[in-house]
From TrEMBL:
Species whose genome carries this gene: Azotobacter chroococcum NCIMB 8003
Protein name: Multidrug efflux pump membrane fusion protein
Signal peptide, first to last residue: none
Keyword terms: Coiled coil
Disordered: annotated span: 390-426
Keyword Coiled coil (UniProt): yes
Length: 426
């Protein structure tokens, strides 16, 4: 329009006064510049955002229940002196693995040998008296029948014989006691396990009771793994089981694996062996115990570990990668791709983590497609360039843990428990 106007007035420029012609020319130039400023450049079209997507599917997914646990000896005994005397020598190395029946301490046996000898002498004396009493009784009986002796003489002979028998029994008991006390001077381990530090040194005078504690021995194969279940966790599991969102194995036959502090896995597996009936008043939890073999000596009593219970299943569970879930101001959400290929924000309810994936309890329908990689760059209505991602599979995100090395090379044989040892465990 400015150009047409300029063409119309151009032929009359020569007939106008000079100042008026100059003003008209400047005005026309300004209008041309103003018109040029009003014309904005067209922005280039935004390229599609490249993302990966997956199709929502339901599947029965095995899950692992994880707890912080502490190990405990399956059988721990205190080694104490049972007689008073002097400690001659310690016959084991502190902290080493000891076998059942292995001698740990030797007390001075000489006073007990003397006591045994004295008791044996008393027994021999009483046995001699018994023989004399029996001989007297044999002589008195016929004389009483012939009337040569009174009936009282027979009663006295019978009483003496019986007193001699009782004295022999008492002397035999004293000999047995002296033999037992002599045997107590040799102190052996009642089980196979790890020995503790010696509480008494060679030459010490020890007595029975609290002052007679010498050391302790802890059986570590098998070993207990204790952990606690809170009331909230128990109620949560009950509600999920009632809603068929979680299934435990029959008879709660979980397989238990133990993970050490460095993330390595103990190769031996165990089973649940005990669950306390009542809650602890101090902690509001109840104790659960697992028992597993410890053939390589990797676990020691009092060690903090993580217990993984395997065998539970979440039926028809929806599992999505964690990177597909974003955190909004009030809730979690994912980007759902509609039929036109456009992203739509969808609020979802999240459950537990499963490795690198996440259980979704509400918000998604089977067969829908969601954005996985690149979700942070997505905005409503932005075109997408979709590359299908592999759907989450059973055990997705489960990382392989390194297997823990043997604690002490060559200790398997030393830790091996005999059938009698296993039978004596509680």
């Amino acid at each position: 329009m400015i150009t047409r106007f300029f063409r119309r007035i151009r032929p009359g420029f020569g007939r106008l006064p000079g100042r008026l012609a100059l003003r008209i020319a400047c005005l026309a130039g300004g209008l041309v510049l103003l018109a040029g400023c009003d014309e904005k450049p067209v922005a280039p079209a935004r390229p599609p955002t490249e993302v990966t997507a997956m199709t929502v599917a339901a599947q029965d997914t095995p899950v692992t229940l994880e707890f912080v646990a502490q190990t405990e000896s399956s059988r721990e005994v205190e080694i104490r002196a049972r007689v008073a005397g002097f400690l001659d020598k310690r016959l084991y190395n502190e902290g080493e693995l000891v076998k059942a029946g292995q001698v740990l301490f030797q007390m001075d046996p000489k006073p007990f040998e003397a006591a045994l000898q004295s008791a044996q002498g008393q027994l021999a004396q009483q046995q001699a008296r018994l023989e004399m009493a029996r001989a007297d009784l044999v002589r008195v009986r016929p004389l009483v029948k012939l009337g040569a002796l009174s009936k009282k003489s027979l009663d006295d002979a019978i009483g003496n014989e019986r007193q001699a028998q009782a004295a022999v029994l008492s002397a035999e008991g004293a000999v047995r006691t002296a033999q037992i006390n002599l045997g107590y001077t040799t102190i052996a381990s009642p089980l196979t396990g790890v020995s503790g530090s010696a509480r008494q040194q060679d030459g010490s005078y020890v007595t029975p009771g609290e002052a007679g504690l010498l050391t302790h021995v802890s059986q570590v194969d098998p070993i207990y793994v204790n952990f606690s279940l809170s009331e909230n966790e128990m109620l949560k599991y009950r509600s999920e089981i009632a809603a068929d969102q979680l299934r435990f194995p029959p008879n709660n036959a979980f397989e238990v694996e133990v993970v050490l502090a460095d993330g390595s896995l103990v190769p031996d597996r165990g089973r649940l062996s005990f669950a306390d009936f009542s809650f602890s008043e101090e902690t509001g939890t109840f104790l659960i115990r697992a028992e597993l073999a410890n053939s390589k000596g990797l676990l020691r009593p009092g060690q903090f570990v993580r217990a993984h219970l395997k065998g539970a299943t979440r039926p028809k569970a929806v599992l999505v990668p964690q990177r597909a879930v974003l955190q909004g101001p009030r809730s979690h959400y994912v980007w759902v791709i509609d039929n036109d290929g456009k992203p739509e924000q969808r609020v979802v309810a999240m459950g537990d983590w499963h490795g690198d994936d996440w259980f979704v309890s509400q918000g998604l329908r089977l067969g829908e497609r969601i954005v996985v990689d690149g979700a942070i760059r997505v905005a409503p209505g932005v075109p997408l360039k979709i590359v299908d991602a592999r759907p989450a599979t059973e055990g997705a995100g489960e990382r392989q843990r390194p297997v823990a090395a043997e604690a002490w090379p060559g200790q398997q044989e030393r830790l091996k428990v005999t059938p009698s040892d296993k039978g004596s465990a509680p």
